[in-house]
Design a protein that fits this description.
CATH topology of the largest domain: Rossmann fold
Strand order of the largest sheet: 8-7-6-9-10-11-12
Shape: elongated
CATH superfamily of the largest domain: NAD(P)-binding Rossmann-like Domain
Distance between the termini: 32 Å
Oligomer: single chain
Radius of gyration: 21 Å
CATH class of the largest domain: Alpha Beta
Helix content: 25-40%
Bound molecules: NADPH dihydro-nicotinamide-adenine-dinucleotide phosphate
Largest sheet: 7 strands, parallel
Order of helices and strands: EHEEEEHHEHEEHEHEHEHEH
Length: 310
Amino acid sequence: MTVNILFAAKADSWAAYETPLKTALAEKGVSANLARDFAPDQVDYIVYAPNSTVQDFTPYTRCKAVLNLWAGVENVVGNQTLTQPLARMVDHGLTQGMIEWVTGHVLRHHLGMDSHIHGLNGAWTKEIPPLAEDRGVTVLGLGALGSACARALKGLGFDVTGWSRGPHDVEGVRCLHGADGLEQALATAEIAVLLLPLTAATEDLMNAERLALMPRGAVILNPGRGALIDDAALLSALDSGQIGHATLDVFRIEPLPADHDFWAHPSVTVTPHIASETRPSSASRVIAENVRRGEASEPFLHLVDRGLGY
Ligand code: NDP
């Protein structure tokens, strides 16, 4: 049987995904019509980006699943018209990209690279960093991305703590969970990496009280979502020296507005939501595998829990 797959994402994504998706579907033995337009009641699957014009799923009466191209689902998970299964993106390219961004920025701060990049101005001053094993790095969120980054940081020798909603076991990583676990996880976080999804439970997680739990001068890396941090509390903690530096990839409003205080703050590094990107070749294989599963009546991979919001 031939399935109809609607590609509901921006035009430039279509240019990037059309060939890889067709190739991946053929490799999985799925016979499919892939297009940007179908009569809604003829659509079997929707490959979806939350910034698509499709916001009302009601007319897609025979659609078996919505397959998100992004890892984050905060802009679609609450859509009341979406009753079909929703799968999010877990992709090799996304994971590897995040490992590279996180380890690079952790090493920057661990090694104090800035002082050398900005120049010592002729002063032969040596500041010897501790070995990685004596540097506490905490990863908040131990999902697809957080656990991969925690493993990579452990592989570099760091003293890694992870925190999540439920219990986890990541080899070599001190895994904590729940409210008490967060306090402990922050207490040793000389460098904290935020890899949580944005949900009602995680919004403003890093508020003034939690920032105060971290060691003085700690560094925050946020490649998760902007609203995990209370912006005003972070600016105040940076000004007081409680937080030494924040490297932020994600923001409440993107692009970050030109007049936002983060741009000019000397202790903030802004990266333009580039920590990790879904790569069309590997992501297409994930989409094709889920379509194959749907057609074989096998469980979909990476389903979102609507109740939890991720
Ligand atoms: P996952 O869903 O695989 O993992 C989420 C993790 O967060 C899980 O460990 C989960 O705990 C934990 N978590 C969720 N809610 C809570 C809570 N209330 N308290 C404690 N822990 C919680 O997501 P991914 O790892 O794939 O992605 C994480 C986020 O990274 C995405 O949601 C997205 O926002 C962001 N992202 C950013 C990118 C960028 O370029 N900047 C690129 C890709 C993703 P448990 O395991 O116990 O359920």
